Structure formats: C-alpha cells, structure tokens
Amino acid sequence: MHVKAKTVALGGLFLALTIVFMALGSVIETSTLFLLAAASFFVGIVVREFGLAAGAAFYLAAVLLGFFVAPNKFYVLTFAAMGFYILGIEAVWRWLLRRDEIQKRYLIFWIGKYVVFNIVYIPIVILFRDMLFAQAVSDTLLVIVILGGQIGLFIYDRAYDYVQEHIWGKMRGRFL
C-alpha cells in the first residue's frame, strides 16, 4: 500500500491535536466535553479527506495513543464513543451515496445517525449506570437521561456539521 507523504503528515498533525485536546480535557475540567468533541471532529476530517479506511486507522491510533498519553482514561473512552459515532455516520453517508435508487436520503441519513448514536449511548447508560451516576437512579430518570442524550446528539451533530462546512471548509485550502 502506497501512502502519500501529505496524508501521513496531515494525519500526524491531526493525531497530535487530537491527543492534545484529550489531555486538555483532563486539565480544563469546565471544557471537557467541548475539547473531546473537538478532538473527535478530526476523525471526520480525516475520513472526508482521505477515505474511510484512513479514518478508521486514525480513530484506532487516537484511541490507543490516548490510553497511553491522556491522564484520564474515562475521557479517552468518551472520545472513543464520539469518534465511533463520527466514523459511523460518515460510513452511512458513503453507503447512501452509492445507492441511487434510495429516495429521501437525507431522512434516512438522520435515522442512521440516531441508530449509530443509540447503539453506543443506550448500552453505556444502562450498563455503566453505577459509574455514571453518584447515587442509584430510578428507571424514569434513566429514560430522561436517554432522551436528553438525543437532544445532546442533535447539538453535537450540528456542531460537527458547522465545523466541517465552515471552519474546515475555509482552512482546507491552506493544508491540502
């Protein structure tokens, strides 16, 4: 497999920034989710610029390196969930692009986003209930947390779209 030098250099730069954002999430506790979300956005940038295989390799490298470098391993797991979501939705979008016969792609894409998110989110909330909450929570509160996660996904997804379209869209000409 022949890898272009620009791909490796830019991937290494993005990997370094991803790890820095993960580590900063442990230092600046008030901005942890923001920094982890920003770190996970690099997965999407790599997928869009270099393909799904390169994005998956970048994602795995970021998770493994994060476990070695980041002080708080729980934040690495949070990044892993966020990065998996981005990798998943980019894969869904690429799959939809190859299917000309499918009508209402955008609606199916949104459904796919929520399916990918809930494949990760719901098991984490249910299985790690004791780790996530300081005291025992009722099933009603658990349902509220799951519904709140759906709203959080919408905000996270809008931020990801904004970064891809406006921020990376303006910067990509300088890097590529």
TrEMBL record:
Keywords carried by this UniProt record:
Membrane, Transmembrane, Transmembrane helix
Tell me where the transmembrane regions lie: 12-38, 50-68, 74-95, 107-126, 132-156
Source organism, top-level taxon? Bacteria
Protein name, UniProt field: DUF2232 domain-containing protein
Which organism does this record belong to? Mediterraneibacter catenae
